[in-house]
Automatic annotation (TrEMBL):
Record-stated family: Belongs to the ADIPOR family.
Coiled coil: none
Subcellular localization, as worded in the UniProt entry: Membrane
Major site of localization recorded for this protein: membrane
GO cellular component terms, semicolon-separated: membrane
Residues given in the record as Zn(2+) binding sites: H252, H397, H401
UniProt-listed PANTHER family: ADIPONECTIN RECEPTOR PROTEIN, ADIPOR/PROGESTIN RECEPTOR-RELATED
Membrane topology: Multi-pass membrane protein
Single GO term (MF): signaling receptor activity
GO process annotations (BP): response to hormone; response to sucrose
Organism, scientific name: Physcomitrium patens (Spreading-leaved earth moss)
Superkingdom to which the source organism belongs: Eukaryota
Name of the featured protein: Uncharacterized protein
Transmembrane segments: 117-137, 234-256, 268-289, 295-317, 329-348, 360-378
Length: 434
């Protein structure tokens, strides 16, 4: 008898065969038949994802099945249920991954959560800098810089006030109209004949010594005209930037896997930041102080030691906690501010060089990008103004990532200017600006 407002219950007999013997079992099976009032709500569990259908709909693809399985088994959680090692920003309230298996953690790079943009901003930045590195390596000094270098080369003997040597060198260059190929293929051999080891234009030993010195100096100039300034310092910076960007993206992707892995990933992330800051000094210091090896070695050695010391400090577990977030930012900022010393040195002694002023504006822009990024990182703006509103997109760490990439690209542009300058103006041994 069916009670009003309640689903009826049917009892049926089920015949079961067990070990060759037939036993009659009476199984009470509750089958809820929704009444008309519930049916009007449009809800029936039997039709949810095909769970109770006799013929569930086929999945449109394996990818969708996998995503549905991951979504059901490994839900995104809120901040208040996170383990301590994942609690970093209390103003981001939802969409956290926590203790996911490795496979699902790796696949989450293609899903939406509060780390998605953190992963992709620096991963895309890594790919951009990889492309820029390949492009820069494939470039050779432009032919436009060769006449400028050649003018300096021909005027070099005048510095020793040996007019006769100048006349002979000019006489030996009848094919100056075809400078690039001529210099690359023939000039070193002709120069060896024009400036022999035992010159005949003068017999005293003083002039012979000067002639040999000038020959060596001209040889260096010719090598730089053909090959240009070395790209090694520039590539060191590009390598440091790519290491920082990739390690950051890798850390954000896998940090939800386990506390032990996160412990080492954070150290890798800090090492990447310190490496990028340290290597950013290499292009300006090397190219500016190309003719002053003492200052070049002092500055490069100092910043390298500072970088290693910073990484060593961050190996202390206490510095990983959210409590020391301002301390980490101050340490990295102080590391970057140490670049003021070589920058001032450059301005004082090379203010007459146009490249000094041009690169200065780029370096100021780079510093502003990094400074604003650090301030946003420490203050956690804008999510602290409206917690939960920027969980997926627009929170401080994502803005910090974008500003880091902008600063690194600005520094890349300055490095190109330094290289072009040294392609056009080499360093003559024994002649310095300081």
């Amino acid at each position: 008898m069916e009670a009003q407002g309640r689903p009826d219950v049917r009892v049926r007999k089920v015949r079961q065969v067990h070990t060759g013997h037939e036993n009659d079992l009476i199984a009470s099976v509750s089958e809820g038949l929704l009444d008309s009032n519930v049916a009007t709500l449009g809800y029936d569990e039997r039709y949810q994802d095909g769970c109770c259908d006799e013929n569930p709909p086929k999945s449109p693809g394996r990818a969708q099945d996998l995503w549905r399985k991951v979504k059901k088994q490994y839900d995104l959680v809120e901040y208040h249920v996170l383990p301590d090692y994942l609690r970093d920003n209390e103003y981001i309230l939802r969409h956290y991954r926590s203790n996911w298996p490795l496979k699902e953690t790796l696949l989450s790079i293609f899903t939406i959560h509060n780390e998605t943009l953190n992963i992709w901003t620096h991963l895309i930045g890594f790919l951009v800098f990889l492309a820029l590195t390949i492009f820069t390596v494939r470039q050779v000094p432009k032919e436009a810089v060769v006449p400028e270098r050649l003018a300096n080369l021909i005027q070099m003997p005048n510095r020793g006030d040996l007019h006769q040597l100048h006349v002979e060198l000019v006489t030996c260059f009848p094919a100056l109209a075809n400078v690039p190929s001529f210099l690359q293929d023939h000039l070193p051999h002709i120069l060896a004949k024009c400036v022999p080891d035992t010159p005949i234009i003068a017999a005293n030993s003083t002039q012979q010594c000067f002639m040999q010195t000038m020959k060596d100096a001209l040889g260096v100039e010719l090598d730089m005209i053909v090959a240009g300034a070395t790209r090694v310092p520039f590539l060191v910076f590009m390598g440091g930037a790519m290491f920082c960007l990739f390690s950051s993206s890798f850390c954000h992707l896998l940090s939800c896997y386990s506390s032990d892995l996160t412990y080492w990933l954070l150290r890798l992330d800090y090492a990447g930041i310190a490496t990028m800051i340290a290597t950013s000094f290499y292009p300006p210091v090397y190219y500016v102080f190309l003719c002053q090896p003492m200052w070049r070695h002092v500055y490069l050695t100092s910043i390298s030691l500072i970088g290693v010391s910073t990484v060593a400090i961050f190996l202390v577990p206490a510095f990983q906690t959210a409590k020391y977030r301002p301390m980490r930012a101050i340490a990295f900022a102080a590391m970057g501010m140490s670049g003021i010393i070589p920058a001032v040195h450059k301005i004082v002694f090379f203010h007459h060089e146009p490249v000094c002023i041009e690169t200065l504006w780029y370096e100021i822009g780079m510093g502003l990008f990094y400074l604003v990024g650090v301030m946003i990182y420490v203050t956690r703006i804008p999510e602290r103004w409206k917690p939960g509103a920027f969980d997926i997109a627009g929170h401080s760490h994502q803005l910090f990532h974008v500003l880091v990439i902008a600063g690194a690209y600005t520094h890349y542009r300055a490095g190109l200017i330094y290289m072009k300058w040294r392609d056009a103006h080499g360093c003559v041994p024994g002649i310095t600006s300081i």
